[in-house]
Amino acid sequence: MAHAIRMPKHRWADFVMLGFYPPLWKIPPVKRATTYRLMSLAGETLRPLEGVRVLDLTRVLAGPFATMILGDLGAEVIKVERPGSGDDTRQWGPPFVGSESAYFLSVNRNKKSIAIDMKRPQGVKILTELAEVSDVVVENFVPGKLQQMGLGYNQLSGVNPRLIYCSISGYGQTGPQSQSPGYDSIASAVSGMMHITGPEGGDPVRPGVAMTDLATGLYAHGAIMAALLHRHNTGRGVHIDCNLLSSQVSCLSHIAANYLNAGKEARRWGTAHESIVPYQGFRTKDGHIVVAAGNDKQFVKVCEVLKLTSLTQEPKYKTNKLRVQNRRELINLLNQRFMEETTSDWLRRFTGSGVPVGPINSIQEVFADPQVKHNDLIQAMNHPTAGRISVPGPAVRYSSFCPSEATPPPLIGQHTTQNLDRSG
Amino acid sequence: MAHAIRMPKHRWADFVMLGFYPPLWKIPPVKRATTYRLMSLAGETLRPLEGVRVLDLTRVLAGPFATMILGDLGAEVIKVERPGSGDDTRQWGPPFVGSESAYFLSVNRNKKSIAIDMKRPQGVKILTELAEVSDVVVENFVPGKLQQMGLGYNQLSGVNPRLIYCSISGYGQTGPQSQSPGYDSIASAVSGMMHITGPEGGDPVRPGVAMTDLATGLYAHGAIMAALLHRHNTGRGVHIDCNLLSSQVSCLSHIAANYLNAGKEARRWGTAHESIVPYQGFRTKDGHIVVAAGNDKQFVKVCEVLKLTSLTQEPKYKTNKLRVQNRRELINLLNQRFMEETTSDWLRRFTGSGVPVGPINSIQEVFADPQVKHNDLIQAMNHPTAGRISVPGPAVRYSSFCPSEATPPPLIGQHTTQVLRETLSYSDDVITDLLESGAVAQNEVS
């Protein structure tokens, strides 16, 4: 990375910006933390987390997803893996691309890998020294495990009081379930997510991708940045507790509030909405279409497009409330009509109607979508052994900088020597 | 909020910390932005976003969810609503708690509400002045809409170059679909989420809560803080583009990578895992249980607990790979056995086995769970008209501070007068005129 000026983080830089040059004895010692905050006249091309070093002890999905986003924002992410197999997901396939699983490739760009045996004293020593010169540690071990190894928050913040230590677990750092390992599908079940997902009258299912893990990773990436902001004011680090259970329960939002305030239990609705009709998926001749007619005007439009205008005269479908009451009958009628044409036919006919509609896209269809391509959601890069690979790109765009030029997911221990040379 | 010392944000505070007192002429003017960065010797009790002002123009779920988290972290969130009905979700019920919908209550704590008619010039003027003294604007209008009203990024960053402007939309600020309004269920369909969710061999369904909206809100809250960090270095704001489509597609992670790299299409698996067996939900006598036996050792344990030890001798179930190949038969056998006892019986028998298991909890069961209570996930507070209410609490905990003491979700226009008077220093006469003209509205409760 090229930077115009590189300055120590401890305030001297501020002075320089304003034309003051205080005597060196006034500057707090910089020996402890060798990360630098960047000050540059060409500030706009820098990314928010340039100069931030993240020591990443996480494995699988929630943690790596969070640190990947930090890497996209310019942080240096050092992924610590055990020698040999490393992160379990390296073996999670097929499919594999060369020797790498697609799973591992999908969430590990922009990181370096160092292979360190944490069970040995030399390994613990190296990681402690790395923590001394890092800004953030992220870990997802069962609570207490790292403490036993000498790498817990108390221990590492002792050597680096500015350290932000983010723990990701299944259920929390303390409490009756804290020792249970975190698995997305169990957490999804325990937190109520499965109970509310599935066909009406059918069995619960889980979201097709591990949304509980991913939501936790998203909470964690925000929390780490909140802690970095906090540190600007306090000069100190913090221990962050993120967990699958809390993340998913918080995400229950109105479903939870319905129960907590009105005792109203939730149930499964398939693709439908409990209180809006018609607002769901319909089968077509060759697939499905989702229609979201949120008010009476849009319902009339739906009837026009379907050439079922008689329905607009029907008193029992006049308002949303009535349509909800008489939903079964109405949905049957609409169902039959939708089955008569193909999805693309319907999409065409709904164009310009003002009614929100969309196809239920397969993954192939998703990546053929012009808006998906426009949003740069296919991120391609060269991998040293797997060749040309593609992963889903960063979700958020900024007007003043681009996400990091993606470096490919590392091979196990690819950067071990490089890192030890630098910090040693 | 009580603070030990309150200082202007423009570096003078740093000098004070180090014992320097530079002449005032050296300090950049603070008239434009009246937000302050807080420096306190008791720094630990302050929250990360104390002193940050967020002007919240969002409605429904994704935006309000994001700004709620910023409020939990100490930001001052000013929610702008149109006079009369305000945020649509105020009416989304039943259930209602008093006059407030449970929906609205669930994602709007720690905010003030001002009722401003954005279609009138006085309304636009007020919002422009508020943007001048705010750190962040968050909005979820169809791209271009606010620009037409004079409240777009270009316009507001012109009056406040430090402004962080976060746009949340359905599909993005530009591109062929950018003008389509964002609905979670459509975005969930278009982005592939529905295609991969549902029973094996059955129809697609959507996640039971709007995870696409929520993921977008989570991306946005992080992006806003990234922009605040960025501003420390650059001194400038930025325009952020968050949208439902990109958020959900990015969350496809390995499902997407399977397709992009190996052409492998995804399908629906119910509660099961494509490549691990047994790793799914089973019906019990009175409900369901989910078992996640990730390796051969755990499979053996499952057979022991189920008293089906003969299965461990069966060659075709010896390794995970073989179990995946012979899954239908094996799952049937396990299914039959699980049906013979209740969920709580099975949970008891699996205790100490080392196999991850869990019940499929109803919402009632979720909030009876001791760990959920331990994690403070039921956040209760007093609401001026609805009385005692409860909402799901913040998900993340920090060792050095607690989330904001929750102020209840505001009534529509509850804080209009307060904000005009205290934040913009409007005189009482001016405020009275605005109220009479209808450009702004004040709730009878303040």
Automatic annotation (TrEMBL), chain A:
Root EC class: transferase
Species name: Cynoglossus semilaevis
Catalytic reactions of this protein: itaconate + glutaryl-CoA = itaconyl-CoA + glutarate; 3-hydroxy-3-methylglutarate + glutaryl-CoA = (3S)-3-hydroxy-3-methylglutaryl-CoA + glutarate; itaconate + succinyl-CoA = itaconyl-CoA + succinate; glutarate + succinyl-CoA = glutaryl-CoA + succinate
Cellular compartments per GO CC: mitochondrion
Record-given protein name: Succinyl-CoA:glutarate CoA-transferase
Extent of Polar residues compositional bias: 414-424
Ranges for region Disordered: 405-424
Listed PANTHER family: SUCCINATE--HYDROXYMETHYLGLUTARATE COA-TRANSFERASE (PTHR48207)
Known function: Coenzyme A (CoA) transferase that reversibly catalyzes the transfer of a CoA moiety from a dicarboxyl-CoA to a dicarboxylate in a metabolite recycling process. Displays preference for succinyl-CoA and glutarate-CoA as dicarboxyl-CoA donors and glutarate, succinate, adipate/hexanedioate, itaconate and 3-hydroxy-3-methylglutarate as dicarboxylate acceptors. Acts on intermediates or end products of lysine and tryptophan degradation pathway, in particular catalyzes succinyl-CoA-dependent reesterification of free glutarate into glutaryl-CoA to prevent renal excretion of glutarate.
InterPro entries: CoA-transferase_III_domain (IPR050483), CoA-Trfase_fam_III (IPR003673), CoA-Trfase_III_dom3_sf (IPR044855), CoA-Trfase_III_dom_1_sf (IPR023606)
Family per record: Belongs to the CoA-transferase III family.
Lineage, broadest ranks: Eukaryota, Metazoa, Chordata, Craniata, Vertebrata
Assigned keywords, A-Z: Acetylation, Mitochondrion, Transferase, Transit peptide
Pfam families to which the protein is assigned, alphabetical: CoA_transf_3
